[in-house]
Amino acid sequence: MELFPPLPLSEWRETKETLHRFEQLVGKIRLTSSARRNHWWNVPFHVTGRGITTRPMGQCDGNPVFTIDFDFVDHQLVVTTLDGTAVSFPLMGQSVASFRRLTMEALADLGVHAEIPHPEPFDLPDSARPFAQDTEHATYDPEHANRYWQVLSQVALVLEEFASRFSGKCSAVHHFWHTFDLAYTRFSGRHVEQPPQADSVTREAYSREVTSFGFWFGDESMAAPAFYAYAAPEPEGLALEPLRPVAARWVPQNGSHLALLPYDEARALSDPRTAVLDFYESAYQAAASLAGWDIEAMASPGGVTDQRRLELQHH
């Protein structure tokens, strides 16, 4: 299968907009049915061999243990409890409203009582419209949904490879449903005091100094998919640091800067995987060096931290 297959936003925009809202609804169930983790690590989806999963949840809220999975091979939503009982329904042919109704019915059939305190999209143009009233978004092209999952899977493995080089505190490689991006974050351990006006999501996400890396599929503000990296807080002079490969660049973003490598430019290179790893590494070295991280102490070449083994490898 082709590494990084084409997925222009213009070709699957309607499916993406519908799927984004499907995922936000399920993500909000995950948010209320899982134990809170630092930096919201309990919230994102993880990639599976057939799609994406909430991972097991419940129990802490009085519900049975249950999991919700998007299957992008057979194109179904599958709700499963720990005893193996499952309820599923097709993703094709659903509006956001019908998807919500069928999801809640599936949960009820399994004895799961899920509450969604804010039953409308988060940070989307129709954020004032409840999911139950959205019959506008009703496009699901199975080919595009499957391609989206293929790209998620391939990029996730590149990020896992990049993550293997770092032994400090870091996040999983996970898929955030609110921004519809795949992300991996490294932490220096330093506390960051957020301004009083910062919202609660931002305050928790950026309570420690980070460098973050990921991929998104494009949106209204940036129509092309891209690999990205940034630092928060951003060290002075970061946007003057060189990036690799030559197609990568720093772009202004909400008063700071974002390192971008356009997906189509990366996939056109002779070795896209190596190019993306080089991009992430160059962004990390730039940000961590300027911020004064102990880069050598937090390194784990090839996923190894055993000093004896590292010495043997060098001889």
Overview of this protein structure:
This protein has 315 residues and is of the alpha+beta class. It has two domains: 9-133; 142-301, no CATH class. The chain is 31% helix and 20% strand. The protein has seven helices and eleven strands. It has helices spanning 9-32, 96-109, 142-163, 200-205, 263-267, 272-291, 307-313, and strands spanning 46-47, 51-53, 66-71, 76-81, 86-90, 174-176, 181-191, 208-216, 226-232, 249-253, 256-262. A six-stranded antiparallel β-sheet has the order 6-7-8-9-11-10. A five-stranded antiparallel β-sheet has the order 1-2-3-4-5. A hairpin with a 4-residue loop joins β3 (66-71) and β4 (76-81). The two termini are 38 Å apart. The mean pLDDT is 94.
Backbone shape: globular
Strand content: 15-25%
What is the average of the pLDDT values? 94
Structural domains: how many: 2
Largest sheet: 6 strands, antiparallel
**Proportion of helical residues:** 25-40%
Q: Count of DSSP E strands? A: 11
The order of strands across the largest sheet is: 6-7-8-9-11-10
Q: What order do the helices and strands follow?
A: HEEEEEHHEEHEEEEHHH
Given as residue ranges, the uncertain stretches (5+ residues, pLDDT < 50) are none
Rg, rounded, reads 20 Å
Query: Whole-Å distance between the termini?
Result: 38 Å
| Secondary structure category | alpha+beta
